């Protein structure tokens, strides 16, 4: 596609349930990032994939969070046993250039 | 590690006022610098960038100059419009860091422009 696509755009889930967020990067982009943006706060780095290298998971806030990416295609971010503090907009970005990233529209997650 | 500090908002201006949003950074080497904008209900969009010292990025009437000596990348616009109301994020990508091409963001500054 023309840009980074994320789905769903909105997700409301009950506390304790698992959720899966999807990101379709721009075709050919080797780098993929997940960020989180809580209400009224800045962007928080979660995880970074670069080609076939081991991902940088240093930003994942707890072991309830995990992400996968197959090759240079789709990535899924999974949050297990969701908590209300997980409510945020989850942003995905992809990049082919060392210095430029393109962002998706984000998935707004609300845990009730 | 790398860090970005930008002025806290909200910044409230009248239409046609001059805008400055300050951004300073800490990084080793020569990072690339960016401003991203997030309009209400939308995702992040790249607004402008500068990849080396003294470069000036510009787009949609916004400008920012990469100042190595003051480690700053302040965003300016001569005459803001109501449609500029958004959250603005300053970011850098370091030349070398553990996450390769990872972006480091500031906290964001909300701009509200009143007619």
Please sum up the structure shown.
Chain A is mainly beta and 112 residues long.
Biggest chain-to-chain interface with counts: A-B, 24 and 22 residues
- Compute the number of helices of chain B: 0
Q: Encode the helix/strand succession of chain B as letters.
A: EEEEEEEEEEEE
Fraction of residues in helix of chain B: under 10%
Largest sheet of chain A: 6 strands, mixed
Helix content of chain A: under 10%
* Mean pLDDT value of chain B: 89
Distance between the termini of chain A: 33 Å
Distance between the termini of chain B: 41 Å
Number of alpha- plus pi-helical segments of chain A: 0
Radius of gyration of chain A: 13 Å
The secondary-structure element order of chain A is EEEEEEEEEE
Radius of gyration of chain B: 14 Å
Number of strands of chain B: 12
Parts with pLDDT < 50 across at least 5 consecutive residues of chain B = none
Strand content of chain B: over 45%
Oligomer: heterodimer
The outline of chain A comes out as globular
Q: Sheet bearing the most strands of chain B, described?
A: 6 strands, mixed
Which whole number gives the mean pLDDT of chain A?
A: 89
Structural shape of chain B: globular
Give a structural overview.
The complex is a heterodimer of chains A (112) and B (115). By secondary structure, chain A is mainly beta. Chain A has no helices and 10 strands. In chain A, strands 2, 4, 5, 8, 9 and 10 form a 6-stranded mixed β-sheet that branches. A 4-stranded antiparallel β-sheet of chain A has the order 1-3-7-6, with no helix packed on it. Chain A is globular and about 40 Å long. Chain B is mainly beta and 115 residues long. Helices cover 0% and strands 50% of the residues of chain B. Chain B is built from no helices and 12 strands. The radius of gyration of chain B is 14 Å and the shape is globular. The mean pLDDT of chain B is 89. Chains A and B meet through strand 4, strand 5, strand 8 and strand 9 of A and strand 6 and strand 11 of B.
């Amino acid at each position: 596609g023309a840009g980074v696509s994320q789905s769903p755009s909105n997700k409301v889930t009950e506390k304790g349930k698992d959720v899966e967020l999807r990101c379709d990067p721009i075709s050919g982009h080797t780098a993929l990032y997940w960020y989180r943006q809580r209400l009224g706060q800045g962007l928080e780095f979660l995880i970074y994939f670069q080609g076939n290298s081991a991902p940088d998971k240093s930003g994942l806030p707890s072991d309830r969070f995990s992400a996968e990416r197959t090759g240079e295609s789709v990535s899924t971010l999974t949050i297990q046993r969701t908590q209300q503090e997980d409510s945020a907009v989850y942003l995905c970005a992809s990049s082919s250039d060392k210095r430029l990233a393109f962002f998706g529209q984000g998935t707004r997650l609300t845990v009730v | 590690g790398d860090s970005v500090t930008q002025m806290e908002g909200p910044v409230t201006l009248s239409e046609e006022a001059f805008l400055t949003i300050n951004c300073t950074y800490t990084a080793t080497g020569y990072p690339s610098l960016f401003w991203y904008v997030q309009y209400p209900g939308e995702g992040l969009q790249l607004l402008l960038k500068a990849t080396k010292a003294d470069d000036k990025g510009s787009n949609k009437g916004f400008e920012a100059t990469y100042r190595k000596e003051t480690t700053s990348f302040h965003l300016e616009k001569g005459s803001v419009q109501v449609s500029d109301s958004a959250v603005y994020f300053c970011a850098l990508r370091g030349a070398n860091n553990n996450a390769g091409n990872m972006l480091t963001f500031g906290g964001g500054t909300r701009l509200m422009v009143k007619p």
